[in-house]
Amino acid sequence: MQRRTFLRATAVTGSAMALGGLPAPSASAAPGGFPDYTYVRTLLSPADLKYNPTGEIIFPTVRGVYDKLAEPLGRYYLYYAPHDAPGGICLAYGDSLEGPFTEYPDNPIVSNDWSPHYSVSHVSSPHVLWMPRHREFWLYFHGENTTTRLARSKDGIHFTYDKVVLSTSMMPAGTTETSYARVFAHELPDRGAHYVMLFMLNNTTNHRDICWGWSADGRDWTFDQTPLVRHSDVGAVNVGGPHLLTRGGSAFVVYNKDKESGGDLMITEVGAGFSLRKHLGLFYDSHDSAPENGRAAAPSFGTQSGVPYMVYEAGERLAGAIAVARG
C-alpha cells in the first residue's frame, strides 16, 4: 500500500538540504513538494538489543557523521532511548540510512544518574544537533518529563553535561511536562535567533500541545507562552514528536497525533518567521499492519545520495520499534 501525503497547494523552491531538511522536489514528489514516504524496514527492535531494560524504545534521531569525525564507527549515528525508568540515551551506527545498524556495546551513553548534575527516574528523547562553530554534537534530552537538558560531545559518544535548557517553570502556571524537544538551526533575524526548539507541553488538562522557543546560541532560550500547534487545532487528544522542515522559503512542523486520534503524522506550515498557522493535514498515513500497527511518531529526516529518508517510531507507544521509510 502506498503512503499518502495530503497537502494544500504550496509554493516549492530551494536546493537539496542535509539532515534536518528535505531535498528539492522531483517529478515524483507528492502534492506540496514533499516526498511520499514508503516504509522500507525495521531498523531496531527492543528484543534484539543488548541494552533493553524495559522492552521499548522511542524517539530516534539520525545524523550523518562521516564528514565530521576522522574515524567514526559508521557513516550514520542513530540515537534512541527507552522511555520508562531507567531509560538511557543509546547509540547505534551504520553505513546506510536503510541499515543495518549496530548497537553500540556500551549503551547507555547517558544514564539517569549523572553525579553531581542529576539523579532522576529516567532520561529519554535524545535529539542531537551538530554545532559547526564548536565542532561538537549537542544532545538535548529529558529527565524527568518536566526538564530538558543539554550535553555536549566531540565524538558523538562521550558527553559532558552542560545545563538545563527548558523546564516547566519557564512556561505558564499549570504546565506539567516540557519534554521531547528537538532543536534546529533556523534564522529568525527579528528575534536575533539562530536556533529554534520544538517541544511537547502538557498541563493540568492532560492534553498535549506543541510549543516552541528561540535562541541565539542554542543554550539560552526564550519560549513563546502560547502553543505553536494546539491539539484542538487538528482534532487530536494529544500531539507531539515535532520536527522542523524547510522548503521554498517557508518552515513546516511535522508531528504525530496520538493513536486515539488516528496515529498518523501531520504537517502545519508555520512560515519562515513562525507567524503562520496553516494546518495542511496528513503527512504520513500509518499502516494498520506491523510494524506500525496504526501508529507512526517522532520522525527524524535525512538524505543519502539525494534520496530522502524518514526514521521514526513504528508501533504502539512503548511497544514499538524504530523503522525507516524512503521518499
UniProtKB/TrEMBL annotation:
SUPFAM superfamilies in the record: Arabinanase/levansucrase/invertase
Name of this chain's protein: Twin-arginine translocation signal domain-containing protein
Keywords attached to this entry: Signal
Organism: Streptomyces endophyticus
Signal peptide annotation: 1-29
Keyword Zinc attributed: no
PROSITE patterns given in the database record: TAT (PS51318)
InterPro entries: Glyco_hydro_beta-prop_sf, TAT_signal, TAT_signal_bac_arc
